[in-house]
Structure formats: C-alpha cells, structure tokens
Amino acid sequence: MLLIELTYKKPINEVDKFVVEHREFLDKQYEAGVLLLSGPQEPRVGGILLARGEQNAIEEILKQDPFYQQGIADYRIINFVPNKSCKLLTPLLN
Question: Which of 28, 38, 39, 43 sits at 20 to 30 Å (Cα–Cα) from 65?
Fold first, then answer.
C-alpha cells in the first residue's frame, strides 16, 4: 500500500485551474482499482492519496496527473505494509 502526499508548488489560484482535470484523473484511478482514498490537506497546501500497487507502477501512473504534468505539485510516496485495521478496512489487508 502507498500513502502519497502531494504538496503544492504553485499558488492556490494556479492549483484551482487544474482541479477538474485532476479529479477526472483520480476518477480513472478509482475505476482501475488503484486509488482507495483521496482528499485535500487542511489547510489546503496539498493532498493525500492512498493507493495500492507496486511503487514503480504508481510512479508512472502519477505522471498522468495534470498536477504533475503542469508542475503544480510535488509527490512523496510512502510504501507501507498495513497489518492492522478497523473492521471496515480489514478487506484491504489481503
């Protein structure tokens, strides 16, 4: 499992120009079964994604994100192996 932290490199008015395209990218990744959760940070300085897959594959997928293509955000990928969860998320452990 991968926790991905996006940190905006540009002012929020520049970020907002690409939010619709970014969300369309996210929708495609949800449909493909890659993304599990996503959302903005508070305060709005970036976002968080929870994904499953191999890190190299995820890195290639992230290059399709308009935020990446437009130089809007930096990406920090944290690879981890979940071994405990609440009952609702237990299926993700397999």
Answer: 43
